[in-house]
């Protein structure tokens, strides 16, 4: 995080005034994949302030890209005057929602409590605590832990039908797998339903948001409230963010893009957005930025007419990196990108930014005796020492943006701080080298 404060960040944000209703804007931005009654939701969100919530389980020490979708949806609803509740799952985090493939490894109470505190900080960064519709953070351990097993089964479990629970996508997938599903994870949807009812009773909460893959858990709450309270409440399921081959981004898939700078560096985060495909970038701008419809339409024209300029990707990367890590970190990432390709000075980059940039390149660890030729081979920039010598003789080898014609010099003698070096062959082929101390 940089010197940019949460107040600074939130002060720059607004909904697009060209939309009559916040419902229309979130639909335009592709934030509604599935929902309860659309007409009722549109009317509800156009009326007096309502209370709404989203839950975040502490199954890791950081939130990730999918959670950012929820946080931005919550922020848009808050900007429209509605009242957000951010739920951190001190109890559901001890259980874990069922994954489609395998049982989760349960975390200790101490680990879960530590991660609850980290998740709370993330949630508080993206939503304002000021005013009558300021953020309120709640922990479901507060109302779940006092329940006895008998109370849970009689008062809550009695309202759920096993045949309905079995039809939920995650449960069905696990039942048809070799792993099966434990009673613990099978019960997760009951706990989430209990959360919604508790928030309805305490805060008059009438809307829950979550990922569309959680739809079964979302509707467990709407059904419990209908059965026990006799009222209709609502849910919105957002689309899953996938890469170009349709694979979901997330910790379960091993390709999570984390919001914590120690887990995904601001440089790597910036590069992720910069590398979005032309076919995806406009949708990403709609979901992840506060740019207006007019600004996004103008960038769509740029994509169509001048795709090689990648203006939309550059703006996307700047906006989202600034949102998550601050403007200083975003500018440092831009400077690092330019410097790596010879359009800036590597020596002025902060050490952590340089290390993060090098970590994203094909990389080799070498010792103090390794020559430039050997490093080129070790990093895969050339296939052989002979090819390395020819590339250097032809003027196509650079170390830290300085042309190297003598390939027999050691990398250590050219490394920044005697430790890091960026090797470049030609204009665009890069690799990183770290010299062992």
From TrEMBL:
Its main location: cytoplasm. InterPro entries: aa-tRNA-synth_I_CS, aa-tRNA-synth_Ic, Rossmann-like_a/b/a_fold, S4_RNA-bd_sf, SYY-like_C, Tyr-tRNA-ligase, Tyr-tRNA-ligase_bac-type, Tyr-tRNA-ligase_bac_1. Residues 355-429 form the Tyrosine--tRNA ligase SYY-like C-terminal domain. A motif ('HIGH' region) lies at residues 58-67. It catalyses: tRNA(Tyr) + L-tyrosine + ATP = L-tyrosyl-tRNA(Tyr) + AMP + diphosphate + H(+). This is Tyrosine--tRNA ligase. It is found in: Cytoplasm. Homodimer. A motif ('KMSKS' region) lies at residues 248-252. It is an enzyme of class 6 (ligase). Keywords: Aminoacyl-tRNA synthetase, ATP-binding, Cytoplasm, Ligase, Nucleotide-binding, Protein biosynthesis, RNA-binding. HAMAP family: Tyr_tRNA_synth_type1. Catalyzes the attachment of tyrosine to tRNA(Tyr) in a two-step reaction: tyrosine is first activated by ATP to form Tyr-AMP and then transferred to the acceptor end of tRNA(Tyr). PROSITE patterns: AA_TRNA_LIGASE_I (PS00178), S4 (PS50889). ATP binds at residue 251. L-tyrosine binds at residues 53, 188, 192. NCBIfam families: tyrS. GO terms for molecular function: ligase activity. Belongs to the class-I aminoacyl-tRNA synthetase family. TyrS type 1 subfamily.
